[in-house]
Specification:
There is one protein chain. The chain has 491 residues and is α+β, with helices and mostly antiparallel strands. 43% of the residues lie in helices and 13% in strands. The protein has 21 helices and 16 strands. The strands form five sheets. A four-stranded antiparallel beta sheet has the order 1-14-16-15, with helices on one face. Strands 10-11-13-12 form a four-stranded antiparallel beta sheet, with no helix packed on it. A three-stranded antiparallel beta sheet has the order 2-4-3. The radius of gyration is 28 Å and the shape is globular. 36% of the residues are buried. Belongs to the TFB2 family.
Length: 491
């Protein structure tokens, strides 16, 4: 800038919302080299194929047996102009995931061809071939076989151990040091500056109200980010996770042929509740619903951190409505903001305490009330109004969910939903915009010249003629700065 004015950058953005990336978003953030390694596993190729947009899957199948590049114009002709937007998204997804690559055809025209490793291993996954899955080795009947009810209870106990630790519950026995390190690495917890104990963060509060499937997937993403520090291959671990997601609940699988690294990884999954193994040298293990439901993670209408999440402490282990029969709604919300929770678990009580003022606790019943202060405390912790409402609706008592008790069929009365959103709106009366401040102009004419130019370019956010101050959007800063440098050059 010239001597007659100075600019100052302002960053007013509030803390970001916790993001739980689905498989597409996670792989998109990885390097092409990592993706190339990953596509050597048929299981991953099948998982990626299933996550693609419908039109992208059509493109893949049409190109799967073509051994030469296909002109991009020909691919575009497969879709009518009325679906041009869907075609653009499909092409973008295939390029972001390195599923196909640009390749020239004779004559110099651009073409598309599927990545060689992806094409080869997707054929293996769809048509058979390749090496047998080592986990499917035949086993003698298990004399101490575990049924689905036992596996559900085991997964519930192990995963709730992690959540108990996050909410500071006394029931934290059994959590592994590895799980604590992952919580700290993910920013869900942090070390207290005074005594060094682990305390929950704003992101951790949001994490607690995500669905169980999203919690597990987000947790495992951070595990994969630190896999190299454990001398493990992130690609091999991810491939094994998706092998588990395609397994059968209640069936035991063999550890024969597994490398030492994968045996170590299996023990970590055992600690988190994704697999059950009676003892380390048992030679067999049972996947639980936590592993099978990884493929159920989808981006909800409210985003990863929005209303699309629910669950948290009430561990709905079943994906797509396949939870254990004993896991039913237990919350009643009255129109006077009273909340009744028929529960005996301290974790569910701790979760309710995040956004309600707890009044009474009995052996199988907890009574609380939604107040302005309790909701605002949750909002300060990073929890949104939609998350609170969705949590209460997801766990509403069956009678409330069916419309009884004034729930309106959703489990929470409209007056209660509106009030919670109004309490949130009280805190959102300001719109935050990043920008650059221009001030200290030597003359009113200089200020007016820069202000009028910024306004004409549509990048002026605010200005004050009295103080000769203008606020310009961040993306318009370079444009305005170049204009001012040109104007302020001595003639």
């Amino acid at each position: 800038m010239s001597e007659s004015s100075k600019s100052k950058s302002l960053n007013l953005n509030p803390s970001p919302t916790l993001q739980c990336k689905n498989l597409h978003e996670y792989l998109k953030s990885r390097t092409p080299q990592f993706l190339e390694t990953l596509y050597n596993y048929p299981t991953i190729c099948l998982a990626v194929y299933r996550e693609l947009p419908e039109l992208a899957r059509h493109f893949v199948i049409r190109l799967l047996f073509v051994e030469q590049p296909v002109p991009q114009a020909v691919v575009a002709s497969w879709v009518s102009q009325t679906h041009a937007k869907e075609q653009s998204k499909a092409c973008e997804a295939l390029s972001e995931l390195s599923v196909w690559q640009e390749a020239p055809i004779p004559g110099g025209l651009p073409g598309w061809i599927l990545a060689q490793s992806f094409k080869k291993n997707l054929k293996v996954a769809l048509l058979g071939g390749g090496r047998p899955w080592s986990m499917s080795s035949s086993l003698e009947p298990d004399g101490k076989a575990r049924d689905i009810a036992f596996l559900d209870a085991y997964a519930l106990e192990r995963w709730e151990c992690v959540l108990h630790y996050m909410v500071g519950s006394a029931q934290t026995e059994g959590i592994s040091a590895d799980a604590v390190r992952i919580l700290l690495h993910a920013g869900l917890m942090t070390r207290d500056a005074e005594d060094g104990s682990a305390v929950i963060t704003r992101a951790g509060f949001q994490f607690l109200l995500l669905s169980t499937a999203k919690q597990v997937w987000l947790f495992l993403q951070h595990y994969l980010h630190t896999a190299e520090k454990r001398s493990l291959s992130a690609a091999e671990c991810l491939a094994f996770l998706y092998q588990l997601s395609f397994s059968t609940l209640g069936k035991d699988y063999s550890t024969e042929g597994m490398s030492n690294n994968m045996l170590v990884f299996l023990q970590h999954l055992r600690e988190f509740g994704l697999v059950y193994q009676r003892k380390r040298k048992a030679g067999r293990f049972y996947p639980t619903r936590l592993a099978l439901n990884m493929t159920c993670v989808r981006e909800g209408p409210g985003g990863a951190g929005g209303a699309g999440g629910a669950g948290g402490g009430h561990l709905a282990l079943g994906g797509a409505g396949e939870g254990p029969p004993q896991q039913r709604g237990y919350i009643i919300v009255e129109t006077n903001y009273r909340v009744y929770a028929y529960t005996q678990t301290s974790l569910q009580v701790a979760l309710l305490g995040l956004f309600t003022e707890l009044l009474y606790r009995f052996p199988n019943l907890v009574v609380g009330v939604l107040t302005r202060d309790s909701v605002r405390q949750a909002l300060r912790g990073g929890i949104t109004a939609d998350q609170i409402i969705h949590y209460l609706e997801q766990h509403a008592h069956p009678q409330m969910a069916s419309g009884g008790g004034g729930g309106g069929g959703g489990g929470v009365a409209g007056t209660v939903r509106d009030q919670v959103r109004l309490w949130e709106a009280e805190r959102n009366r300001f719109t935050y915009t990043e920008g650059v401040v221009y001030n200290q102009f030597l003359s009113a004419a200089d200020f007016a010249l820069l202000r009028d130019y910024a306004r004409a370019q549509g990048v002026l956010t605010w200005s004050s003629e009295r103080t000769r101050t203008a606020l310009v959007t961040r993306h318009g800063h370079d444009l305005v700065r170049r204009f001012w440098k040109k104007h302020s050059k001595p003639s």
